[in-house]
């Protein structure tokens, strides 16, 4: 007959618990309970003030799922992008499901593509009073925590409300509070979630050592899922590919105003490697189109604007795409894409959207999504220009127009110091695809001619005399 579990107060101890003592308590249980009690007493004494003190109204839809993105580290940025993708998948899997996404920083956190109508609000995840008010106002069915330090206030409020907590774990466990040095607090928090989803075995070991229950840890891999291809107009893509012809092309996407001068300078430098190089520039603010045209003229670049219905010709150096909702078109046309905002550290577009359509990624020193770590950042304007120019030259490609794919690319993001993306066999994934070029255009000659092969005479086999040389006459 199996032994029955013992009860110690409000806690049930399994009969085969190796950490159970004769007194009926586990090692460190009282310390963990004391640590959590001390934190709740200190956090409950503080009053919400400043940002996020008022709880916003709940979104429509029932049941409601609350997703929270704590302030992450650099290694967790990719998983936060996956948190936005997770919200989109949840919204598409169940009709009528309510979703609310909060973040624990004053500045917006990049969470990738999110479904339309998703409510995104800042949250005081360190304030227990605010967390209790949010659970009372929203009444969510579950709380999903993204990668980053664990917010004790939200976990404690979820436990009081009787709601399950799911953790999408980052690389290493941590606690987001000034009480993080309190003995036993992290272990007490890791005992609360119903499920902890980790990316690999190393993360699982780290969370087990930190105090999480082994049976509640599940390895699922990185959450940063590859997004689906952005939409485009096939007729517009074909027309632009014919107009661009065999000219080499690169794209500067989501360029903020403080980086426009750097991108224009990079275009001038890159033209030294490919004098027919064409730059398609997509500003973050479409109203910057006229000012960009004037700045390009001051730099000696001939520019045309798409919003003004101006057509590029062979003498055009800059095509200003001052329109909205056409990134899917430009990713299909450009074999190389530089992402604005990565030089100054401001918000940028998702580089996985370009990689999904086969465009090599170039970025600055600011942190980007973690799944593009094989690429190395550029450090200066000249390095950015050299990366774009060499990537275009080594790829032996013209424009990337009519044959662009609608599915994910097999190659990874390109080396941002000039190496193009590599496929499975260590080759350029677009090298053997003739449909990558423009419609009706032949590929140009490569920038560097290959060296001729040297034919060496085959050595004679052992034990055999070499054949006699025939003399003249």
Automatic annotation (TrEMBL):
Transmembrane domains' residue ranges: none
GO cellular component: plasma membrane
Span list, region Disordered: 1-26, 398-473
Record keywords, A-Z: Cell membrane, Lipopolysaccharide biosynthesis, Membrane, Transferase
Pfam families per the UniProt record, alphabetical: Glycos_transf_N (PF04413)
InterPro entries reported for this sequence: Glycos_transf_N (IPR007507), Glycos_transf_N_sf (IPR038107), Kdotransferase (IPR039901)
Keyword Cell membrane included in the entry's annotation: yes
GO molecular function: Kdo transferase activity
Catalysed reactions, as listed in the record: lipid IVA (E. coli) + CMP-3-deoxy-beta-D-manno-octulosonate = alpha-Kdo-(2->6)-lipid IVA (E. coli) + CMP + H(+)
Location, primary (coarse class): membrane
Role: Involved in lipopolysaccharide (LPS) biosynthesis. Catalyzes the transfer of 3-deoxy-D-manno-octulosonate (Kdo) residue(s) from CMP-Kdo to lipid IV(A), the tetraacyldisaccharide-1,4'-bisphosphate precursor of lipid A.
Name of the protein in question: 3-deoxy-D-manno-octulosonic acid transferase
Species whose genome carries this gene: Rhodobaculum claviforme
